Each structure stands twice: as structure tokens, then as C-alpha cells.
């Protein structure tokens, strides 16, 4: 008996992206062919038949312009992977001969790879839809790091939550302030966990916490009596032993400058919704001295009855990190060694299991890459599939 292949349903955005790439490829090749044809025709038609040649040139320019602008506007409006850098390159180089062709090839290659990658993801998700691989017993609580808030406009976790939900997960957010001491953030998170449990009757939550969020959750479990509501805690790139780089900055930057930065941040954070932001308290708790104090109070051991695990990653070069991580990476490397642009490897491990992320290639994975903050498809590291695998493992454990 033969079997028919299931038709993959491709989102409209990818269809439009593919159309845009097709138009740009048509422009590339027809422009090349037309240019060669016009050059050959010039030897035959000029100068005696110049009006006909000039008319042909005008027709070619008009037709190719229409094809080009349809293609470029389409991919600029629908592509995610072009990003700001490639878009700027396209605009700047668009007026420079030869450079514009090189930029166009970069745009075509980037969007074509995006269509291929996203189509493959669609196929994967549709093939396992019935399995609901991320439908854990307890819902997922995503806890953000410092200097960010959970908003609907720009999701801190990028495309990850939608991928988890598509594969069966129920996702909640910490909704705590962007900057506060570990103790204060822990109190907010403890209240949020109680709220979720009481309102949904879920009993417990599986917590995935990034950066300082991991410290906040450890304190919440140890000191705010919410351990009975937590089935698992997975920390992502959390500085469990602090950042030596932060100690250096606090010792090097004049107090007056620190106070001005603190006042500016707290004022801005208040306008954005923080009820009581405390920039310097958050920064001090991320230093090695601050984490040493925190660990003396709550300990570094796993919590009985809770699955405790941690993840860390390494950025390999400053140039492969986005601002400001491309600036901080060499400084953190100088003080702390291999790092993700902010946190060094010795600071990551915690719990009963530690996963070290260092894919093949020369790019590595930054602090921001681990939460898909830039929505970038990275060769050798599918961040969305990483979280699907992480949550699917929680489901296999009965959590």
C-alpha cells in the first residue's frame, strides 16, 4: 500500500517572502541578461539607430525597476531575518554600483534561507502536533532577567512562548519589576506564583528563569515559602556566583555617575510601570560580592522535591554579539574567562544537572541569544527547538 505525504500548510508570511525572493532573483538574472544584450546591441545600433537603442534601454530600466521594487519592498516588509543591519546595508549600498549587487545577493541569500528554515519548522511542528510534546502536567512560568519587563509589545522571550504553546504548553509570565533587589523581586514572584496556582488550580508551576530571574526564584523558594508550588526550576545563563565584571564597574565608575544613572533609570522605569524600581540594588546583587552574600543566606544546594537544573552558553567572539554584548564580551573575558557577553562559565552551574551550550562553528551563543531576544536564526542552534526539548523533557518526567 502506498502512502501520501501530508501537505505542509505554510503561513502567508512565508509565501509572501518566497514571492519577494523570486522577484529579486528574476531581477538579478534578467538585469544581467538585458545589460549584456544592450551592450551587444550598442555595437550594432549605435550611432545610426540610437533612438531605438535608447528606447530599448528605457524599457529595460522601467520593467526592471518595477520587478526590483516589488521584490525589495516585499522582503523588507515580511522578513524577520534581514534585521536592521542588512536593511541598512541594502539602503546604503543601493546607490553604489557593484556594491548594490553584492548587497542584493546578501538580501536574497538571507531571505531564501529564512524561508527554507521556517518552512522546515512548520513541517516539524505539523508532523508532531498530535503529540503535544510540551503539554506538561504543570504550566510553564517564564521569569525575565534584569532591566526588562514582560510586555505584549516586545516579548522578552522572542518566539519561544508561541513555539511552546503551539506544541501544547500553557505559559505564564512573572510580571515582576525590571530592576529591584533579589529579595524584592522574589517577593513579587512568590505572589505571582500563588496567584497563578489559586486562580487556575494547577497546583504547581515549572519555572524557567533567565539571568537574574534565576537568583530571584532561588530566593523565592528558599525564603518566600513557595517551594510547595514549584515542580521544577531551570535557570538559563544565571550568574549564580555573580559577575566579576560588575564588581569592577562599580569600583571604577565614580559614585556621582552611578547615582545619575540610577536616578535616570528609576525615573524611566517608573513611567513604564515599575512601582518601586531600584537600579543599584539590582546591580549590587549581580556582583560576585552580592551573590556570595545571597548564597550565604539561601545556600547553593538544590531544593528537595524540586527538579533543579541550569543552562549556560558561550559567545566565541565579540563581533558575533549584538550591542552591548559585543562591547562587554572582551571585558568579561578579561576578568572572568569564557562567557556569554555578561556571565562567565564558572557562574552558571547550579542544581542537579548543568547543560553547557557551545555549538559548532565560530559564533557561539550570547546571553541574549538564549532567550531569542533578537529573533535571529543561528546556524547550529535552534533556540525555539531547544526550549521545546527542555519542556518536553519536563513532560517526560511527569512534571
Automatic annotation (TrEMBL):
<keyword id="KW-0812">Transmembrane</keyword>
<protein>
    <submittedName>
        <fullName>Triacylglycerol lipase</fullName>
    </submittedName>
</protein>
<feature type="transmembrane region" description="Helical">
    <location>
        <begin position="88"/>
        <end position="108"/>
    </location>
</feature>
<dbReference type="GO" id="GO:0003824">
    <property type="term" value="F:catalytic activity"/>
</dbReference>
<dbReference type="InterPro" id="IPR000073">
    <property type="entry name" value="AB_hydrolase_1"/>
</dbReference>
<feature type="domain" description="AB hydrolase-1">
    <location>
        <begin position="138"/>
        <end position="273"/>
    </location>
</feature>
<keyword id="KW-0472">Membrane</keyword>
<keyword id="KW-1133">Transmembrane helix</keyword>
<feature type="transmembrane region" description="Helical">
    <location>
        <begin position="26"/>
        <end position="46"/>
    </location>
</feature>
<feature type="transmembrane region" description="Helical">
    <location>
        <begin position="52"/>
        <end position="76"/>
    </location>
</feature>
<dbReference type="Pfam" id="PF00561">
    <property type="entry name" value="Abhydrolase_1"/>
</dbReference>
<dbReference type="InterPro" id="IPR029058">
    <property type="entry name" value="AB_hydrolase_fold"/>
</dbReference>
Amino acid at each position: 500500500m502506498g502512502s501520501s505525504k501530508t501537505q505542509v500548510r505554510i503561513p502567508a508570511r512565508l509565501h509572501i517572502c518566497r514571492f519577494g525572493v523570486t522577484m529579486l532573483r528574476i531581477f538579478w538574472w534578467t538585469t544581467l541578461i538585458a545589460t549584456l544584450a544592450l551592450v551587444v546591441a550598442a555595437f550594432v545600433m549605435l550611432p545610426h539607430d540610437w533612438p531605438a537603442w535608447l528606447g530599448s534601454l528605457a524599457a529595460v530600466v522601467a520593467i526592471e525597476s518595477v520587478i526590483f521594487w516589488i521584490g525589495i519592498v516585499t522582503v523588507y516588509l515580511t522578513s524577520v531575518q534581514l534585521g536592521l543591519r542588512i536593511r541598512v546595508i541594502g539602503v546604503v549600498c543601493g546607490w553604489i554600483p557593484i556594491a548594490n549587487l553584492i548587497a542584493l545577493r546578501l538580501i536574497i541569500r538571507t531571505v531564501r534561507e529564512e524561508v527554507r528554515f521556517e518552512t522546515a519548522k512548520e513541517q516539524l511542528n505539523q508532523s508532531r502536533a498530535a503529540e503535544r510534546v510540551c503539554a506538561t502536567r504543570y504550566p510553564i512560568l517564564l521569569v525575565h532577567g534584569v532591566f526588562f519587563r514582560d510586555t505584549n509589545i516586545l516579548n522578552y522571550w522572542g518566539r519561544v512562548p508561541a513555539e511552546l504553546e503551539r506544541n501544547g504548553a500553557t505559559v505564564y509570565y512573572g510580571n515582576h519589576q525590571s530592576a529591584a533587589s533579589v529579595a524584592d523581586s522574589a517577593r513579587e514572584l512568590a505572589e505571582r506564583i500563588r496567584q497563578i496556582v489559586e486562580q487556575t488550580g494547577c497546583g504547581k508551576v515549572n519555572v524557567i528563569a533567565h539571568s537574574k530571574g534565576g537568583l530571584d526564584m532561588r530566593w523565592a523558594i528558599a525564603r518566600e515559602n513557595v517551594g510547595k508550588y514549584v515542580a521544577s526550576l531551570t535557570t538559563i545563563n544565571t550568574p549564580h556566583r555573580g559577575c566579576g565584571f560588575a564588581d569592577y564597574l562599580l569600583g571604577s565608575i565614580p559614585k556621582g555617575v552611578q547615582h545619575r544613572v540610577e536616578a535616570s533609570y528609576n525615573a524611566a522605569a517608573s513611567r513604564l510601570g515599575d512601582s518601586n524600581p531600584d537600579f543599584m540594588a539590582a546591580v549590587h546583587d549581580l556582583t560576585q560580592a552580592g551573590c556570595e552574600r545571597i548564597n550565604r543566606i539561601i545556600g547553593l544546594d538544590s531544593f528537595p522535591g524540586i527538579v533543579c537544573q541550569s543552562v549556560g552558553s558561550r559567545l566565541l567572539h565579540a563581533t558575533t554579539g549584538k550591542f552591548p554584548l559585543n562591547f562587554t564580551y572582551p571585558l568579561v573575558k578579561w576578568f572572568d574567562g569564557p562567557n556569554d557577553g555578561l556571565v562567565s562559565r564558572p557562574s552558571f552551574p547550579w542544581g542537579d544537572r548543568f547543560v553547557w551550550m557551545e555549538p559548532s562553528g565560530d559564533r557561539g551563543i550570547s546571553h541574549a541569544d538564549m532567550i531569542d531576544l533578537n529573533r535571529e536564526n543561528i546556524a547550529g542552534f535552534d533556540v525555539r527547538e531547544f526550549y521545546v526539548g527542555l519542556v518536553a523533557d519536563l513532560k517526560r518526567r511527569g512534571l
